[in-house]
Design brief:
Blueprint (H helix, E strand, L loop, with lengths): L1 H7 L5 H15 L5 H14 L18 H5 L15 E12 L2 E2 L2 E2 L10 E2 L2 E2 L8 E10 L2 E11 L5 E2 L10 H14 L1
Length: 184
């Protein structure tokens, strides 16, 4: 893709660049020696048309390279746009009843589907007894500031010694560590 993008000065990115590069490679293929042709193309990309410092003066395709003619070989391939980072705040609730911690099974379609986790809220729960602390973590393009609050609950839960045996996401384990002094 890099060799093609420079030879053609193609500004496409992602799947469009891949499609264009395959069409170009198909048209350029020496059908009498396809293996040698493909190996030479890969070698050109690995040793001459390198990502950061292309050696255009050594390139056998310099005369047909549009990126070289434009004087901007490193402008191709066009970098993919970086995804926007989304900052978000959440409250992780450690609900305790009789020394047991309430966990919920994460539903399909959510992060950590199928794992056991602590309830999460976009705002502080209406009734909480203590804030155990906060921490930051990231999931894909989300930077999350998590506040851990301890609440008193009712109903079933897991005993503290059972938690080690459960599949629990890492941020939830961090929240449990922060809340540990309030759980005893």
């Amino acid at each position: 893709e890099r060799v093609y993008a420079r030879v053609a000065a193609d500004p496409a990115v992602g799947p469009r660049l891949t499609k264009n590069a395959w069409a170009w490679a198909e048209a350029e293929l020496d059908r009498s020696r396809p293996g040698d042709h493909n190996q030479a193309l890969m070698e050109l990309g690995a040793t001459v048309c390198t990502y950061r410092a292309p050696k255009c003066d050594e390139c056998p395709w310099r005369d047909r390279c549009r990126a070289f003619a434009l004087g901007e070989p490193t402008a191709f391939p066009t970098p993919k746009p970086k995804p926007l980072v989304r900052d978000r705040e959440e409250w992780i609730e450690v609900r305790v009843a009789d020394g047991r911690v309430h966990l919920e099974k994460r539903p399909e379609g959510e992060w950590w589907a199928g794992m056991w986790g602590l309830p999460r809220h976009p705002a502080p729960p209406s009734e909480w007894s203590r804030e155990a602390g906060s921490f930051r973590y990231a999931v894909t393009v989300h930077r999350i500031h998590a506040h851990v609050v301890v609440t008193e609950g009712t109903g079933e839960g897991f005993a503290l010694d059972e938690l080690a045996e459960l599949a629990i996401p890492a941020p939830d384990r961090r929240a449990l560590k922060l809340a540990a002094p309030f759980l005893l």
